[in-house]
C-alpha cells in the first residue's frame, strides 16, 4: 500500500533548523518554526488528510514498516546556475528529509491546535526502514515537495 502527499512549500535544510543560544542550549530557529507552520497547513489539506488517515488505519507496528521517498522540486532558476551547472540554491539532497519526516511522523505534532500541529501519522520514525531523497528541476515557478509513503510487511523475524 502507498499514498502520496504534496507539500507546496520550499524544502528546509537541516542546517537551518537549530542554533545555539547564549546559554549554550540547542534551540529551533525562527525559520524552522515558520517552515513547520507552513508544512502543518499543507498537511491539513483534504487530500493529504485523506492519505494520512488511510495510512494510519492500515499501519500495524507489529506487522509493518514504512518506506518513504521525498522528492524536492526546485524551479529551474534555483536548480541551475546560468552556466548550466547545479546551483547551491538547490541544497544538498540529504539535508531536507529530516524536517519532512518529523512533521509527517512525530506524535508530538499530532492533535496540537493549528498552526502548531496537525493530524499526522503519529508513529515513531524508527518504523521507516527505507528513505530515498531526490531533488529535481521543475518548470513550475514555485518549490514543492512530493512524498511517497509505502507500507510493507516486516517480513520474517
Overview of the structural elements:
With 157 residues, the chain is an alpha+beta fold. The protein has one domain (2-15, 28-153): Holliday junction resolvase RusA (60s Ribosomal Protein L30, Chain: A), CATH 3.30.1330. It contains 4 helices and 6 strands. It has helices at residues 30-43, 46-58, 76-79, 97-105, and strands at residues 2-7, 18-20, 26-28, 64-75, 128-138, 144-153. The strands form 2 sheets. A 4-stranded mixed sheet has the order 1-6-4-5. It has a two-stranded antiparallel ribbon with strand order 2-3. Strand 2 and strand 3 form a beta hairpin. Helix 1 (30-43) packs across helix 4. The two termini are 21 Å apart. The model has no long low-confidence stretch (mean pLDDT 90).
Throw out a few tags for this protein:
157 residues, alpha+beta, 60s Ribosomal Protein L30, Chain: A, four-stranded mixed β-sheet
What CATH first level would be assigned? Alpha Beta
List low-pLDDT spans: none
Quaternary structure? single chain
Q: Biggest sheet: strands, sense, closure? A: 4 strands, mixed
- How many structural domains in the coordinates? 1
CA(first)-CA(last) distance: 21 Å
Radius of gyration over alpha carbons? 16 Å
Q: Helix and strand succession?
A: EEEHHEHHEE
The CATH architecture term is: 2-Layer Sandwich
CATH level 4 superfamily: Holliday junction resolvase RusA
Write down the overall geometry.
globular
The class by helix and strand makeup works out as alpha+beta
Instruction: Write down the CATH topology.
Output: 60s Ribosomal Protein L30, Chain: A
The largest beta-sheet arranges its strands as 1-6-4-5
Beta-strand content: 25-35%
Query: So how many helices?
Result: 4
Amino acid at each position: 500500500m502507498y499514498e502520496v502527499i504534496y507539500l507546496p512549500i520550499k524544502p528546509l535544510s537541516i542546517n537551518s533548523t537549530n542554533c545555539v543560544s547564549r546559554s549554550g542550549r540547542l534551540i529551533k530557529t525562527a525559520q524552522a518554526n515558520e517552515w513547520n507552520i507552513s508544512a502543518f497547513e499543507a498537511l491539513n489539506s483534504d487530500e493529504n488528510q485523506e492519505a494520512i488517515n488511510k495510512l494510519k488505519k492500515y499501519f500495524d507496528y507489529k506487522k509493518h514498516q514504512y518506506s518513504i521517498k521525498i522528492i524536492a522540486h526546485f524551479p529551474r532558476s534555483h536548480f541551475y546556475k546560468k552556466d548550466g551547472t547545479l546551483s547551491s540554491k538547490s541544497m544538498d539532497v540529504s539535508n531536507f528529509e529530516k524536517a519532512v519526516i518529523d512533521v509527517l511522523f512525530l506524535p508530538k505534532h499530532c492533535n496540537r491546535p493549528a498552526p502548531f500541529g496537525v493530524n499526522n501519522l503519529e508513529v515513531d520514525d524508527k518504523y521507516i526502514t527505507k528513505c530515498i531523497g531526490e531533488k529535481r528541476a521543475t518548470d513550475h515557478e514555485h518549490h514543492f515537495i512530493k512524498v511517497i509513503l509505502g507500507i510493507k510487511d516486516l517480513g520474517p523475524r
